[in-house]
Amino acid sequence: MKITVSAPGKLMLFGEHTVVYGRPCIVTTVGQRMKVTVELLDKPLFQLNAPDVQIESYQKPITNLGKGDISKGVRFVEFAVKNFGIKKGGLKIITKSQFNSSFGFGSSSAATVCVIKALSELTGKKLSNKQIFDLSYKTVLDVQGKGSGFDVAAATYGGTLYFVTEGKTIKPLNLPSLPLIVGFTGIKADTVTIVNQVLEKAKKYPNIIENIYTAIQTIVALARKSLIKEDFQTVGELMNFNQGYLVALGVSSQKLDNMINLSKDAGAYGAKLSGAGVGDCMIALALPSKVKLVKNAITKAGGQIINVKTNVEGVRIEA
Which of 10, 105, 151, 270 sees the fewest Cβ atoms within 10 Å? Predict the structure, then answer.
């Protein structure tokens, strides 16, 4: 008995870094998906093939889940199975991603959500989206020790979400469309390291950083209203404000700045980094008539255009 499940990647629109400290953010999903096939086995073994992260024919007794030296490419899937709890038999899991893990689209969270959803269906537990989120978020915390959960929420619920840390609030914005232009820096960001660097700044300059966080929270609130109205010019202007504060936090880079500034010079309403910063992706909003110019500008700055559909469906059964 087996099942295939898929979940989307994500892009942060507004509120990165502040969401780690209990503030709201807005996140959207991307059309490239993580696919996970889970098959029930009679033997009490955990087997994993994840070719995208160079994991082939990994296996261990189901009773040893979460124990020993676990490679990075295995941790999220293994802990997801451990946290769900398999009463008898074992599992064979195959993961396949439609996006490069370097993009910062949240492949680990998407894989975690897929595994929990698949096990929910195979065991007949039929977990709700909130239960899938809670178990997947626990898994992320078990593996990396920290995380706000917005990428887990995006993979679970899909669409574009207004989200508060730990899933205290998860509200779909129900947008008909979201025409983003996405550029990849070619640099893989280390989210935990960057978050810790901002934390050190907050310890040194608590009042300044708190004021920045409060300003970004105001931007998130305004952006939420503007997105629902499809007032993309205002959304773009708010992106520019948000980027200014991210620069002040020290999480932008020369490469990101060049891609963002040339996008605006080419006619984008607004542009900003998306995610932890330093590397990964930037996003821009522009009129249809300006899209080609903006894409060319991003390429000129050394970026790679990632053609994505945004605001897509969350975790779903494929077969």
Answer: 270
151 as an active site residue: the answer is yes
Distance CA 112, CA 129 (A): 13
Give how far Cα 312 sits from Cα of 10, 57, 115, 273, Å.
10, 32, 19, 21
Query: Which residue among 69, 134, 142, 151 is the active-site one?
Result: 151
Residue with tokens 């300059």: 205
Would you tell me the crossing angle of helices 191-204 and 206-228 to the nearest 10 degrees?
130
Q: What is residue 54's predicted lDDT score, i.e. its pLDDT?
A: 85
Measured N-to-C along each axis, helices 129-144 and 72-84 cross at an angle, to the nearest 10 degrees, of: 130
Would you state the pLDDT for residue 245?
98
Place of tokens 């929270």: 217
Q: What is the pLDDT of residues 49-108, one digit of tens each?
A: 999 888 898 999 999 998 888 887 899 999 999 999 988 899 999 999 987 776 777 789
Per residue, the 3-state secondary structure of the chain, as one string, reads CEEEEEEEEEEEEECCCHHHHCCEEEEEEEEEEEEEEEEEECCCEEEEEEHHHCEEEEEEEHHHCCCCCCCHHHHHHHHHHHHHCCCCCEEEEEEEECCCHHHCCCHHHHHHHHHHHHHHHHCCCCCCHHHHHHHHHHHHHHHHCCCCCHHHHHHHHECEEEEEHHHCEEEECCCCCCCEEEEECCCCCCHHHHHHHHHHHHHHCHHHHHHHHHHHHHHHHHHHHHHHCCCHHHHHHHHHHHHHHHHHHCCCCHHHHHHHHHHHHCCCCEEEEECCCCCCEEEEECCHHHHHHHHHHHHHCCCEECCCCECCECCEECC
